[in-house]
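Pilot study result, target chain (438 residues):
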Amino acid sequence: MTTVCIFAKPPVPGQVKTRLAPAVGTQGAAALARAFLVDTCAMVRALPWARPIVATTGAFDAALTAELALPAWPQGDGDLGARLERILRRALAEHPAALAIGADSPGLPSRLLDDARAALADVDAAIGPTDDGGFYVLALRRCPEGLLDELPWSRPDTFARTLDRLRARGLTVRVLAPWFDVDRPADLARLRDLLERGAIVAPATQRWLGAPQLSVVMPVLDEERRIAGALDDVLAVPGVREVIVVDGGSTDRTVAIARQHPVEVLEAPRGRARQMNAGAAIARGTTLLFLHADTTLPRDAVDHVAQVLADPGVVAGAFRTWTVADAPAPWFAPALHAADVRSRYTRLPYGDQAVFVRADAFRGVGGFPDQPLMEDLELAWRLRAIGRIRTARATVRVSGRRFVAHPIASTLAVNVFPLLYRLGVPATRLAQLYRAVR
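Predicted structure:
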């Protein structure tokens, strides 16, 4: 029997897989770390010669503990070298050989661990290098005191320096075939490709990667004339794999028509903020995009969202708008574009700009405030407190139907009400005024 020590941190957002966070968010990075660990433990459990344990820096939650169903050894204090030594020495006290691996290589072929164990029949140590200069496995028959003291970790020369140290301490060593860790977005793309081709097996990771990265939440109310076209348009956007329609109590056929499409449909108390919060609560994506039924995304919308959020300091974004009149266009149709100018320069986007936000940031600020008007402006203020908001260099098409039907009310809503709100007029009072001028 050989003890295989799986080194892992509890998958806490912001503390694990941080280099993946710009691509998937901190919540997504934590979810991936959890999936990586589940798959790694399952692979080791399947080895007939292995006794797997998890060497952890802290306690896992009850659900993960139950899912892993493995003994947990605390790593203790010190740098990674000290912790590796401590765990390996404990394992060697119980069995003649021990392997240390991380949980950063979901889908690691079990044959590589077979090779590491087999090598110990002839040498004192075996080590498998990774593409980034580290190593994915360290197998030992003996572990002299201070073997891994003061080595450089998470550096391009980690493997080389560790190999030199093993030899300097008199251990015979075999270098194994290389593999790769998943630490950066490029590694994630490589992992996804291998999983899709069936070259490796990591079910929990593959399930997570198969989940949508972008969730579109569409609040609706009495939109039977528009909902079918709106859903056809958004479902045709490449990369959109989850659309959640949230109805606020329609009295027409909006819900029935929506349910004829491959989307989630739920009902919530009336109010755009409440409806959007309800949709966000069930969304699985790492990014949320809030789309009005009268707003149409460009075909390359997902690419623009990814470009804006590639900067880890950006927590949210929005599109520029181009407002068009539903035929026939009135004589004052050119005035429709007044709001479009604002969308190019504002740092506080309105809801008709198809606002998108990292899911963890959205939940971190409490979502939309429960108020009848100016919920988009209030959310933008909250998000500005924790990061930047950037406008994409792309345009959404917005129907001018409300402006055409109520030009005075719409002008007030766009230009005057935000100023009044900033001056302290309550959103409830503004909502009463908005209904009055309509």
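One observation from the pilot: The first strand starts at residue 2 and ends at 8. A full batch analysis is planned for the follow-on phase.
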